[in-house]
Amino acid sequence: MSEAKWYVAHTYSGYENKVKVDIEKTIENRNLQDQILEVSVPMLEVSELKNGVEKLADKKMFPGYVLIHMIMNDDTWYVVRNTRGVTGFVGPGSKPVPLSDEEMASLGFGKKDVVMDFAVGDTIVVTAGAWKDTVGAVRFINEGKKTLTINVEMFGRETPVELGFTEVKRL
């Protein structure tokens, strides 16, 4: 059995959620749960200012597209391609091209949760990037962005630098 990959289906604008629901119903009706694993309409939470009031709203990251995690074969291709609202797969001609792991990671899919065992004041060493092998004390931790801030000496003065949790380790 082939490995499941992420594919992008093009839909009519505004039909993304309907396509998602229809594909999920078809998966259930045809018992394709082991071949079509996930259907996603990536959303992004944005802050909107309306009438002087700030509100959080969900916006589609890619209007007109649905991401589908599936094993590509004739049955799954047929199910997705013949779903009402789907105009085709993204790829040359009729051949769908899967997204790479790097592309999916940049969208936030398949990311592993990073366990943070740092506290403000801990001494850490940078393990990657431009500041590799730099030692500093943790000044601020942003768990939402999975970053921490340390001060490094640059041009004779202390300068704050923001680093990801995966770029540092405790000394």
Overview of this structure, please?
- It is a single chain.
- This protein starts with a strand and ends with a strand.
- Strands 10-9-8-7-11 form a five-stranded antiparallel β-sheet, with no helix packed on it. Strands 2-5-1-6 form a four-stranded antiparallel β-sheet, covered by helices on one side. A two-stranded antiparallel ribbon has the order 3-4.
- The relative contact order is 0.16.
- The longest helix is centred in the N-terminal third of the chain and has 15 residues, at 16-30.
- With 171 residues, the chain is of the alpha+beta class.
- It folds into two domains: 5-106, Alpha-Beta Plaits; 123-170, SH3 type barrels.
- The protein has helices at 16-30, 74-81, 101-106, and strands at residues 5-11, 36-40, 43-50, 53-60, 65-70, 86-89, 123-126, 135-142, 147-154, 157-164, 168-170.
- 17% of the residues lie in helices and 40% in strands.
- The chain is elongated.
- It is built from three helices and eleven strands.
Within CATH, the superfamily of the largest domain carries the name NusG, N-terminal domain
* Residues in β-strands, percent: 35-45%
Oligomer: single chain
Taking pLDDT < 50 over at least 5 consecutive residues as the criterion, the unreliable ranges are none
Task: Give the strand line-up of the largest sheet.
Answer: 10-9-8-7-11
Helix content: 10-25%
